[in-house]
Design a protein that fits this description.
Blueprint lengths: L2 H4 L1 E6 L5 H13 L3 E6 L1 H11 L7 H12 L6 E5 L16 E7 L1 H8 L6 H11 L3 E6 L6 H12 L3 E2 L13 H16 L11
Helix pairs in contact: 2-8, 5-6, 5-7
Length: about 200
């Protein structure tokens, strides 16, 4: 695997509740020295504003500036791409992008990925990761799960996609929301082979 490509991870934030997982995931990746390619769906933009008060929508330049300012303490820029930008590098296997995390992932996005429907950059980038044999982690945030949701998860899992629901544990005695969120992010890092101490391990 190309080492430079391996240090860039694509992150997609969609319209499921729990956007804090995606926002905090990026922070931890930057702190680890990874480059981040960020795509946000239109519904994800709305949830970011509703749940975290982050206005990451509108003109490209203003969105890029807002994201850059938010993550400036962590020392590395985030490459931002519009969800309708199908000419972005991560839309092609030739970009050597080999890791992607959809966090959180709405059931609609997961269904379209499972069916190979690439209507926007998030779905196309996920399709590329699957076809190129890369590492795709999907973090669904929904409850309860219908048979349709479960079938889509099973289909993707059989294709080698990691289905990692946002299900924090409590055996590490979390002291607040950050601890709960970091538990899930630590599990994501484990699946990608990224060393971390984001949660206290059992035993």
């Amino acid at each position: 695997m190309n080492k430079d490509a391996d240090k860039k991870i694509s992150i997609a934030i969609t319209g499921a509740s729990g956007v804090v997982y995606g926002v905090r995931l990026i922070k931890h990746l930057l702190e680890k020295g990874f480059g981040v390619r960020l795509v946000i769906s239109s519904a994800g933009e709305k949830v970011l504003k509703e749940e975290l008060g982050l206005n990451w929508s509108g003109e490209d330049g203003k969105v890029e500036e807002a994201i850059r300012d938010y993550y400036s303490p962590y020392g590395k820029a985030v490459d931002y791409y519009r969800a309708d930008d199908l000419l972005a590098p991560l839309a092609s296997g030739s970009s050597l992008s080999r890791a992607m995390i959809v966090c959180p992932c709405s059931m609609g996005t997961m269904a379209r990925i499972a069916q190979g429907v690439s209507g926007n950059l998030i779905e196309r980038a996920a399709d590329v990761i699957i076809k190129e044999g890369g590492r795709l982690v999907i973090v669904p945030r929904e409850t309860p799960l219908s048979p349709i949701h479960l079938e889509n998860m099973c289909k993707l899992s059989n294709l080698g996609v990691t289905i990692l629901p946002a299900m924090p544990a409590f055996y590490h005695k979390p002291q607040g929301i950050d601890d709960l969120v970091d538990f899930v992010i630590g599990k994501i890092f484990d699946r990608l082979g990224i060393d971390n101490s984001l949660f206290k391990r059992w035993g």
